[in-house]
Design a protein that fits this description.
This protein is an all-alpha fold. The protein is 63% helix and 0% strand. The chain has five helices and no strands.
């Protein structure tokens, strides 16, 4: 079987020619192998990759309607802030409620744009990741805080002693001993 490439992923048809591979010699991690991650092959370009790059570029360019919506949202915010200060004679509660309503309207307009949808998706993904975090218990937090406080006190004491020693040496050298 000289000249054939054998990969250990079932369901893939292999060819009779060799392909260049990464010079760093990485092995695919079992969690990522075959699940849509980038290839480790050198200079590996495909029409699908190029098409995905073009699609991403097209999606990232704001359309005219998105730009208009973002301008409307900015105008709403500026008008809300102006109104908040312009109607200073009215109750602060009414002005704050009005500002919140105008801010919500501006946010709703912004979420109708591609950038707004991406921001909303990002915040959703961030919340998902925060839920995955293993937060320390109260006891672990208190113990860590205590260690930090003790280390700060010890370091402060060492620096104070070092300062007193240098000040004593400086007074001795300058002849200002009391």
């Amino acid at each position: 079987m000289a000249g054939q490439v054998r990969l250990f992923r079932p369901g893939h048809i292999q060819s009779d020619h060799f392909q260049a591979s990464s010079s760093i010699g990485r092995v695919a991690v079992s969690k990522t192998a075959g699940w849509g991650f980038e290839s480790l092959l050198a200079c590996h370009f495909s029409s699908r990759t190029h098409a995905n790059q073009m699609k991403a570029k097209a999606e990232s360019d704001p359309t005219g309607s998105d730009t208009i919506k973002l301008v409307v949202a900015a105008v709403l915010l500026v008008a809300g802030i102006y109104g908040f200060y312009h109607f200073a004679a009215y109750s602060t509660l009414l002005r704050v409620v009005g500002l919140l309503i105008i801010g919500a309207a501006a946010a709703a307009v912004t979420l109708q744009t591609e950038q707004g949808r991406r921001l909303w998706q990002f915040t959703g993904n961030a919340r998902t990741e925060v839920r995955k975090v293993v937060w320390p218990t109260r006891q672990e937090t208190l113990q860590t805080t205590l260690v930090v406080i003790v280390m700060v006190l010890i370091l402060g004491l060492v620096l104070w002693l070092f300062d007193m020693m240098l000040m004593g040496i400086l007074r001795f050298l300058t002849g200002q001993e009391g």
